[in-house]
Structure formats: C-alpha cells, structure tokens
Write a structure and sequence with these properties.
Residues 37-57 have a biased composition (Basic and acidic residues). With 94 residues, the protein is mostly helical. It has helices at 7-29, 33-57, 69-85.
C-alpha cells in the first residue's frame, strides 16, 4: 500500500483478515461434544419449561396445595391433550 492509503482502510483490512480464521474456528468448535451436550440440555430444559407453562395455563399449580396432587396434574394434562387433539376440554374432577 502506498503512503496515501487511509489508516481506516488498513485497519479494516487487518480486522477482516483476523476475523476470518476466528469465525471459521468458532464454527468447528461449536460441534465439540461438550457444546453439543450443553445445547441438548438447553433444548430439553426449554421443552420441559414449555410443557410446565402449558399445564399451568390449564389449571395446574405446582406451588399450590398438593392434597389432590396427582388428580390436579392429570386434569391439567387431559386439558392440554384435548387442546392438542382439537377436542373440547374434559370437565375437571372436584
């Protein structure tokens, strides 16, 4: 480069050259067994949290009174299953 090349152009060129190998290294590092396991755990946790939110929307309260625990959970699950099947929700037991 000649003496009149702006410093910003040189800096951007150097940054681009440095960033390319770093980006490629991150792509290959993303598939390490540890990161794959972390991603799987994160996905499983998100799925379970979504399921719990569905149950809570349909009447289950995990922090509430647990005297009717299995029945409360089963009622909420029946409502969720009915919604997924497109049927009206069953009447809940007392």
């Amino acid at each position: 480069m000649n003496k009149r090349t702006p410093l910003a152009v040189i800096a951007m060129s150097v940054a681009a050259l440095v960033a390319m190998p770093l980006a490629q290294a991150q792509d290959t590092a993303a598939s390490t067994p540890k990161q794959v396991k972390q991603a799987e755990r994160k996905a499983a946790r998100a799925k379970k949290n979504a399921e719990l939110k569905e149950l809570e929307k349909n009447g289950y309260n995990p922090a509430g009174e647990q005297t009717n625990y299995p029945q409360n959970l089963q009622n909420a699950q029946a409502k969720v299953n009915a919604q997924k099947a497109g049927k009206p929700a069953p009447a809940s037991a007392p």
